[in-house]
Design brief:
Length: 314
């Protein structure tokens, strides 16, 4: 069986297109299919659409509705937990993940020892230039300094085998960063490239600021390189300070001590203060993550599933 996990946040407009197109593709497959829609606290009529979908195809559609917006990462986790298939795929509801790649991905996974077929965008067409620039910078940084490889342009759209999904589910951390998790669990992953697509309807829920925070999470959740950097900069400035001190003492002994140079002193104090605050902030970021992690809060809270609908009808 193939499970299709679909996180939905305000997707009432995209859902009909999505189901139609995916149905067209999956009807050509030999596999039985189940959809698991995760309604991530949508403010529009996504939940109503999901109820209707369930009524229409009760043997294929399941849904989970959260009590509020928990974010796509939580939605993916909930969907993977609910999935019962031997092959599991993650797809966005906005058709930016082309369903027509699915047959090819399934064939690849079934005819070789690949455990996961991922997809990546060839280009960033239709994206603001500044966003592409920062995205590239992010991937350069994490791959240079982090221990977990992250592929530029890789999407969450991927087909995975049961063992890989089970190992992802075993990573029950609260601070979830899927791109890192997929890569961290290992397994053989292959990538298919395709041309970037615009979303079919609705709006993206990502602003520049939310992407920025997301990228900081990506770095902090999977690498302690910023802490190493803090230690290195600290050590470097200590060495410079000691050398400067020796220089000043010798100069005072040889040439006397005229009081001068306070502007440079002020600048140095400001610089050091700034660096200290910056690294305090970085350390604080890690402490914040520890704080959230130790609370052991649930990753998501379910308010309604198709089971509830079934009961109501009885
Ligand atoms: N999504 C979600 N919860 C959120 C934000 C997004 O479940 O808080 C879902 C959304 O419905 C879509 C997918 O995640 O199916 C990708 O979102 P979007 O298209 O806004 O992101 P983009 O494609 O621009 O990266
Ligand atoms: Mg999208």
């Amino acid at each position: 069986m193939l499970s299709i996990v679909v996180p939905c946040f305000n997707e009432q407009e995209s859902l009909p297109y999505f189901v139609k197109e995916v149905e067209e593709v999956t009807s050509t497959l030999a596999h039985s299919v189940e959809y698991i829609f995760v309604n991530d606290g949508s403010k529009d009529h996504t939940l109503e659409s999901l109820r209707e979908l369930y009524e229409k195809m009760p043997d294929r559609v399941r849904y989970i509705s959260f009590s509020k917006n928990f974010g796509k990462e939580s939605a993916l986790y909930a969907g993977l937990q609910a999935a019962r298939g031997d092959l599991i795929t993650l797809m966005d509801a906005d058709l930016q993940d082309p369903p027509e790649l699915l047959p090819q991905m399934i064939e690849r996974i079934e005819t070789s020892d690949v455990d996961c077929v991922g997809t990546r965008r060839q280009d960033r067409n239709g994206e603001p230039a500044i966003r592409s620039f920062f995205a590239r910078l992010f991937y350069k940084l994490v791959n240079k300094f982090g221990d977990t490889e992250m592929i530029d342009g890789a999407r969450d759209f991927r087909l995975m085998t049961r063992p890989m999904v089970d190992s992802i589910l075993a990573m029950s951390e609260y601070n979830r960063f899927s791109k890192g998790i997929f890569s961290w669990v290992g397994f053989n992953t292959e990538y298919i490239s395709y041309e970037n697509r615009e979303r079919v309807a609705g709006d993206t829920s990502w602003s520049f600021w939310s992407l920025f925070k997301y990228s900081i999470d990506g770095i902090v959740n999977f690498s302690d390189a910023p802490l190493t950097l803090a230690a290195l900069v600290g050590a470097f400035s200590c060495i410079v300070a000691v050398l400067a001190l020796i220089f000043i003492i010798i100069r005072a002994l040889l040439f006397g001590d005229p009081t001068s140079g306070w502007p440079s002193l002020v600048s140095i104090i400001l610089l050091m203060g700034g660096i200290q605050l910056l690294f305090l902030g970085i350390i604080g970021k890690y402490i914040g993550k520890i704080f959230l992690e130790t609370k052991k809060r649930p990753i998501y809270i379910v308010k309604e599933t198709e089971e509830d609908l079934k009961k109501e009808e009885k």
